[in-house]
Amino acid sequence: MISDVLAEASEKMNKAVDAAKEDFSTVRTGRANPALFQKVLVDYYGTPTPLQQLASMVNQEARTLIITPFDKSALKDIEKAIAAAHHIGASVGNDGNVIRATLPELTEERRKDFVKVVREKAEQARVSLRNVRRKAKDDLDALTEVGEDEIARAEKELEASTKAHVDAIDDALKRKEAELLEV
Description:
Layout: H1 2-25, E1 41-44, E2 47-50, E3 55-59, E4 64-69, H2 75-84, E5 91-94, E6 99-102, H3 108-142, H4 148-181
Helix pairs in contact: 1-3, 1-4, 3-4
């Protein structure tokens, strides 16, 4: 019973850390990266569709991304969706076959804004970890056929697991901040 609760909590915490790292990858640094475009939704025949399902993306240069649609009729819709994604701030142009998204050079002020965004995402991830911990603690407290000593040991193990996952988020945050502030 206790091991099931701890295993479920650990699994959910791992997913929260992975989600945080994925969120961090969507915040742009000085380089063009296909991960920046993960959250871009294109209105494809009336359905919001993720960009990576409609096109392939390749880095041409440090700040330029080539987007090749699988369906050429979606070219204008993809271009419109990228231009509307203000969190990226890319200038977009197409030659009829591919779209070139060029990211502007980041200013110091913009870099600091992105650091704030990443810190907010990290705090959201920490909150989700705390929610998982709270639910697991409630589940442990609900166990009646287990002794108090075993529950106390399980709670210590839960705290250690939570701290390890919070540290993983903090490490990812430090790496992303260093990447953002790198000129």
